[in-house]
């Protein structure tokens, strides 16, 4: 038979961007250990609604760990204590009866809180808009097999492309750095032959936008990698650093027109 | 924006500068340590080494190297300070329940260890290079007396143009300098922090210039750990030996004849 | 309602080519004078917005998520079909076309499906050029696999994340256009109504979900690509936010709703754990290649297993009912989705279900592990087993996996002609939101193909054709100041006010759950005249209750998830009834629609081609008035209708 637990939820409440925000504490009873973490929050919401209060706002959508929408720091760790898991795939059996769970929004200057646990992550989109694409207008492509790509390179690109853009790397970083996010996209596109033409331009533009959006720098401590629900490795940041250095070097010594 | 400006402005550019200047300092620290350890080979050797350092290159080149090293430190610090300010700005709020999952202690305390190391470097230069530590009277017992002794090679005084060559008695300066217990403790603590700074830095600088992957990260982390400890032990052993009396003063500068004469005089 | 499908003349293989030639073109210099509105940013919407912007049109794109990269296309795991024939195993455009029509149980429009098969190759080329990291062989060429029982290997894949990678490809193309200023992206905006001027779709009314602001957006054409309506069942594999609102609002403004009863139930989902559940998780169908599906023969045994008093491993073979192998000896555990789903339901209805709720059957890998070793199974399904363990806490290497069917995809949707234009001129519908290509049942790995076909290769032509027909003088003529906008905006606002002011006691989620329960029980895997009639009555009653006892906390001018859900549930309440009406009307069993009255003696679906080879299109006639049915006959000139058999 399913086991249940009673919990104390300490959650960040903030009305809007301008509000100061504070923690609120709620008691929850009879939570099934088979429930997902977000289902637990659903129950909390229903409880609050029944009492005439506004439910806790949080971002979520696919609930199968791929859309990257869910974003909350659970007991100090983005997406919670299980490694390689999004908050929506986290299940209550990893908590115990009587536990107090602290839930906070992503904390970073570029991610202002919109409400409660909901933050604005559009700066990540802006980084992609600056150069996170391989230009190929619909209709201009050659046959897909015209350019063989070594399996190792394709696999590496896929490892990098697994990023779901949730922003946990930024949230976990004491500097709110977006290097893992940017590095993953740069590594994905720069390593593929079809992405080479725009490689230097892409790298420089994405880094400039990343800095311009107010993300901090990388201090190589690896918290992002630990928080990443897709376990994107720090290698991607090294890749970004390397490509950036090369791009700057080429830029510096480019022929003067 | 000019490409150089954008490089200096970007977070990655500054990290690359930090890594490159870090590399200079990492190598310097090792050389410095190996040089210092020659004190265990006797006053003759360490004094000759000091003489060589000062006279191998023309004075201008020596100053060039000094400025290069100080410049590296300056760039290293400039990058660290501006990046830290940017990073603070990017993350004004902390988590109520602030946890680290895998970041090592040394990686999280680079700023703290760095700041103390800077203070140490200032003290160290004042102590041994400028020999002018405010508040420390060199006439007092146990502090540095920059005495001159003849340069000794193979047990004999080196003669140039018919005159014996004089040099600092570095051996005695060091032994003297470390007689003050709190100075020695400061040196040992500082080299301990240097060790911490290096256990992250030596591996991290490869990451910053993009020459690292998961496999090499493991290897380089180990290299950095060993490097840090070697540097710590290599440096710390000198004040420790001076305090415990293993290293002794040698007013002759390592000249056996002079030593014999001195002993004779004392016995009379 | 005019259901002219506008299928071009000529032989099947020439239709699309000649149609493209006959299209009206817009001079590149004039394209910047046109504004196109795209609602939805998934494969169809994202690709269409990017492609139209590349051509030079100004595009406004809306999505309810915080970024266009999060549309639910992202969740597709398996792959994308294309008739490349890279494997030299006899695939061709015609075979993909044939398989899709047959798989759809002969309820799809031939010409549309042929075009889909035709452009499928271009999609792969486009995606590779965009940097989608498809799986490759050591030689560097693209890898393929056979999927969903297809007899050729035509499925391209990127690990188990094909949908994600394809969406990120479209998203990156879209992002480029956003960066260039050709696309204005509206994140966290929900379309609440469509605006018609002189009968043509000329704009939308949207709500900014952060500020609650209602705004008008005018355009020369509107593209709806807002996905399917699986969430009418409350529990489905869809994302939490997936809804029918855009499509349903368009329906209320005169767009025909086609075949809503065609809903696909996927057999291998993780069973429901209790009434706190919010979502069903799909596991790849590939598991059925090695897993054996069974339920206990005896009800008592099943009861003991449910109560945890008996370890399923202790049930001897002679007490296990491997029902798929028993009923369908030649296909066995690989029987098609609809058939396996119904068989699981039968076993559970019979009281032989497992899982704590009694709604589950076993998918057992014991024999496969014994045969091939645990390592081999781990290599094949390691990530799926991990996912299963993450969700259920059971180790499927030791305890047999439990599965149950769940609503997965909806084949029905807004009616569109060959140009993907709905019955409202100027309003185009792409992806899962339209009804066009899958007939009564969708084949595995075909949803991604259709979304991208519509977005990259169909809409950019047909929308241009429409704009060309309107003439450059009409470009940008209608603005948001037109009185029609004010009128629709007032409707939208009054509806929100109404939702906010009911002041009842029951939450939107609770109503949604109750609606879902009716839909699943009475209009789910197996439907009867009685169940559907009852469902329609119950939905009507529930709708009344909804409008008198709904409780929406918070306010309308800030981020309010309760209000968002209330609006969506309100539309599901109306749409659910249409779905049931369609199911009631369709007196046959085909594909994802199974009427218990229409089955063969051994329980197989019985199609009625004489009377039901048509598209059922519903026209809105007013609140509390039954919608009108229109029929578009399906003419098969190239395929002979046959009965599916998997015995």
Automatic annotation (TrEMBL), chain B:
Keywords carried by this UniProt record: Membrane, Transmembrane, Transmembrane helix
Upper taxonomic lineage: Bacteria, Pseudomonadati, Verrucomicrobiota, Opitutia, Puniceicoccales
Translocase as UniProt keyword: no
Membrane spanning stretches: 16-41, 61-85, 109-130, 180-202, 223-247
SUPFAM superfamilies: Fumarate reductase respiratory complex transmembrane subunits (SSF81343)
Name of the protein in its database record: Succinate dehydrogenase cytochrome b subunit
InterPro entries recorded: Cytochrome_b-558 (IPR011138), SQR/QFR_C/D (IPR034804)
Origin superkingdom: Bacteria
Keyword Membrane: yes
Automatic annotation (TrEMBL), chain C:
Domain of life where this protein originates: Bacteria
Cofactor or coenzyme needed: FAD
Domain Fumarate reductase/succinate dehydrogenase flavoprotein-like C-terminal: residue ranges: 512-646
Segments forming domain FAD-dependent oxidoreductase 2 FAD-binding: 36-448
Official protein name in the record: Fumarate reductase/succinate dehydrogenase flavoprotein subunit
Native organism: Thalassobacterium sedimentorum
UniProt-listed Pfam families: FAD_binding_2, Succ_DH_flav_C
Any coiled-coil regions, as ranges: none
Keywords, alphabetical: Flavoprotein, Oxidoreductase
InterPro entries registered for this protein in UniProt: FAD-dep_OxRdtase_2_FAD-bd, FAD/NAD-bd_sf, Fum_R/Succ_DH_flav-like_C_sf, Fum_Rdtase/Succ_DH_flav-like_C, SdhA/FrdA/AprA, Succ_DH/Fum_Rdt_flav_su, Succ_DH/fumarate_Rdtase_cat_sf
